[in-house]
Amino acid sequence: MIERLPLLGIRILDLSKVWAGPYGTRLLADMGAEVIKVEGPGSWDMTRALHLLPPAVERPYNKAGYFMEYNRNKYGCVIDLGKPAGRELGLRLAALSDVVIENYRADVLEGLGMTYDTLRGVKPDIILVSMPSHGLSGPDAGRIGYGTHMEQLVGLTSLTGYIDGPPQKSGISYGDPMAGATAAAATIAALLYRRATGCGQHVEVAQIEALLPFVGEFFLEYGMTGRAPERRANRHRSMAPHGAYRCADDTWLALAVGSDEEFASLCGVIGQPAFADDDRFADVVSRYHHQDDLDAIISAWAADRTHRDAAAALQAAGVSAEPVLTIPELVADPHLNERGFWEDVTHLESGTWKTEAPAWRFSRTPAHTRLPAPVFGEHNRYVLRELLGLSDDEVAALEREGIVSNEPLPGQDA
Amino acid sequence: RGDPARRVGPFPEGPSAGSGRSPNPDPSAGSGRSAGALFLFLNTGKESITLDLATATGRRLLLELAEHADALIEGFPSGHLDALGLGIEALHQRNPRLIITSVTAFGQRGPYASHRWSELTAFAAGGQMSLCGNPDREPLMPAGHQGSYQAGIHAFGATLAGLLSVGVIEIGQHIDIAEMEALASTLELYLPDYTYVGREVLTRRRGNILSPTLGIFPCADGFVGIHVMSRNFPSFARVMGEEWMIADERFQSERGRLINNDEIMARIYAWAADRTRDEIYQRAGEERSTIAPVLTIPEVPEQPQMRAREAFRTIDDPRAGPLTYTGPPFRPGEGEWELRPAPRLGEHNAAVYEELLGLSAQDIVALRQAGVI
Fold this sequence. Notes:
The complex is a heterodimer of chains A (414) and B (373).
Chain A: E1 11-14, H1 20-30, E2 34-39, H2 65-69, E3 74-78, H3 84-95, E4 99-102, H4 108-111, H5 116-122, E5 127-130, H6 147-153, H7 156-159, H8 175-197, E6 201-204, H9 207-211, H10 216-225, E7 242-246, E8 252-256, H11 260-269, H12 284-289, H13 291-302, H14 307-316, E9 320-323, H15 327-331, H16 334-338, E10 342-347, E11 351-356, E12 361-362, H17 380-387, H18 392-400
Parallel strand pairs in A: 1-2, 1-4, 2-3, 4-5, 5-6
Antiparallel strand pairs in A: 7-8, 8-9, 10-11
Helix pairs in contact in A: 1-8
Chain B: H1 37-42, H2 56-67, E1 71-74, H3 80-83, H4 88-94, E2 99-104, H5 119-124, H6 146-169, E3 173-178, H7 179-184, H8 190-195, E4 209-211, E5 214-219, E6 222-227, H9 233-239, H10 244-247, H11 254-259, H12 261-273, H13 277-287, E7 291-293, H14 304-308, E8 312-317, E9 321-326, H15 349-355, H16 361-369
Parallel strand pairs in B: 1-2, 2-3
Antiparallel strand pairs in B: 4-5, 5-6, 6-7, 8-9
Helix pairs in contact in B: 9-13
């Protein structure tokens, strides 16, 4: 039975690679779009090489967790768009698509001869979504930038870190998934616009510009005060106590106290009710000025408890507290498991393992993993024979010429 | 008093702006004002009405407004709207095609749905915090409101998808966005390396240096971030003036570079120490090398790229005066983003209640006197 998902009937030609673009197209695929990911025989998705598997493993490019995590619900085919016959296939596919998404460097699409004007020539209402790192124009258009660079260039890294330490990177290539989520939203907005007007468009999602709003308030703060915002580590501009406290077994508790009532509850939980009447902690201003004292008091209490026990006791008393959950703890987490967040997904060559369910939870059109991520060239036949109507002989000829492939050429995995 | 974000400082200082006074730690200091930096940033382009949902008339008006809406987005604690008689069913009874998006830390159901939460504690529950910070110190939350914004960008995309879904199933629906799940969806390769490969080593926070050529390094006037994948190694060696490394067999693979970690890092530290961020970024641009400076907030809008693309815009807010705001997060093919200043509280009461609900001037007065709006 056809699942009636929000993007049912929408076909997306996905030329994007690594994380930013693929995360965006994964969101669109989760929502029911038919996403066809095109890789080249030599220019395949680099995350297939980031498998961290032992050298003896065969076809590791089909077993890379990073790739599989962010390419579920997509079809995969391998066409060399850099060759004339491959470009021709790409344009024929575009003619059958609603959207083309790419996260190449600014000048690559032009080099392939697949600009917006070309695509519009084969599909007048096509939506092209470009995700260059720095933008399609400007002096930095030719630069290569990764998600780690984006957080450095928008100012986030300079604001993150210990108060006595250097700027600190976030734990992930943060610019990538934020650009991907922004591009997914932009694509759907363009589909809504096309539904209303019949017109396609070329949407530009410069990854750096997509991340700017994530630090937007700091630019206003600077404009208002004339002072560069400062690193605060885990501290808050007014609340105290506010931080992460070491618990037993090197686990950590996150705690944030705003009101006097919450502070009184905290004092009760840690067995120090008298602190609620201590002049040093009488109100939010006093607590802010004496937060070193508060941190020491809470650290002493937390030290011989587990983070889960400490957080549960505080929550029960109405204090905002959570364990700082690690990845293994998230996978075992009762809340996420009760919500069905972890799905067992069976992959063609790498068995069954847990992956997260779509975080966009719809009451009437619930999304889930319909397809595991494609192995290399898995859907060549579907794309070439069924969509493009080529004969077996024609496909065989394309394979002989290296335009279509089931096996990657070396080059991405040095 | 409106959105609590109206009372988050700093606040416009008028003529004394730029005098360098320290941020006021007292949140009540802003209670007489209604236009803190966070509110002004988050609410450009919107209209504002007031409506007291604690009153029966207020609840009735909300249901009437819902008839005129495509989407309703809310962030109350789970169960709050239901308790007011404004739950999903009540809203859909009035407007079956309505998309209702709830955005909270933990979602509408499950053991944590009723937890109290703040920016820090919600972020801590999502996994990303366990990856940020040094191994021997406490885990860190990146600056600002990263957890909320991640939930927000997902709520934005999901709501738009919801609008498309109305065309597919001919009826509205409810969307439950939990920040915890949004955060847990972007754990990069660190999640599958645990769930699939079964290793825990990458799930631990590793500070600023993840590999010999991936990290934040000090330079003459600050810091630069280097992120060199295999394909970027030759350009990286050229930028450092160490072309010989390209052919040296010790550095031919990721594994080789890892084994010879100390030599590469020593050369990076020595090379960066007497070069400025500008010098390094200039050379990186010439070689298309994947190195970028760590910029401070005042430096970002001054970058030539930001200026050339007008990535920042000046908005002249009547309360705060002209200030620099971040511009469009994406650029549609035609048209321009509408960047109106954030609204005053209730600024559009008359327009909205008259145009949508057909209320008269007398009605507005009566509602105001009854404390409904």
